[in-house]
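Comment thread on ticket #2218

A.B. wrote:
> Attaching the input chain for the structure job we discussed in standup.
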Amino acid sequence: MEINRKKQIVASLSILSNVLLTALKLTIGIVSGSLCIISEAIHSCSDFAASVLTFFSVIKSSQPADTDHPYGHGKYEDLAGFIEGLLIIFASFFIIYESSKKIILGESISTENNLGIAVMFLAVIMNLFVSSLLFRTAKESNSISLYADGEHLRTDVYSSLGVLAGLILIKYTGHHLLDPIIAILVAGFIYKTGYKISQQALKRLLDYSLPDGDIENLKHIISEFSGAKLKNNSLKARQVGPSTDIDIVLLFPRETSLCKCHRICDEIEKRIRNIYTNASISIHSEPECYNKSCQNLCAEQNKIHCNLEH
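C.D. wrote:
> Ran it. Output below, let me know if you need it in another format.
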């Protein structure tokens, strides 16, 4: 299946699962009176908004380059990932605010937990399945927005497990104050994930360089080719949506033929593409002696050559 088509299908599945879980959690939360289930419904609502955002960003980023976007539309996915991270953070603050009010005001809520336990168990199973699909497709396509959506659902898995354990404790101990306390603990975990996603997406939006390990791998590939030398501070690499942009300037001995330079550049590009399958690679070659004195010498030699011809 074409990878862009697969991305759209998985993103659509995420939307459907989040709609179902949001409706179930909100309904059961209101019926049971459980604040931690309602907080989970809010979390799933942010998951739904993120899934919709992911779906449209995947469609947009798959469009080819055009006049207005000559470098493609990959940054739409980075922007979607950043907004998703902010949505997660907002949801965590809202949950903490509502839970703190319950604790401070000392409101005692009598909850009916059997329905809550059932819906939390269902949420864990569904989100495990959908998040695994999102992560697998994100890895295949290098999609930050699908990865962010997968992280969204994975936090839902852990938070649902926390709420499930809490509901069971409340059921057998009768301590209903555990309900808002568990909600706050869940919110802290949600915040951590949101911060991680937004930070990673923001780095891509600001053209942050690839990690040092990736840069060293690229330098190692170049070093394996004799006759070519990397120009100082000339290796630049960044992640743009699902694509990797790599710019390299290589120095060759002055006597190296154009054909040999071209062949070596092609071989280096081929090696890099074995690692970064969806990459835009630009390799510029220069003579090793390319400085002011060398340019003057070449110009003088060309002048003499032209005079001889005439």
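A.B. wrote:
> Thanks. Noting for the ticket: The chain has a mean pLDDT of 78.
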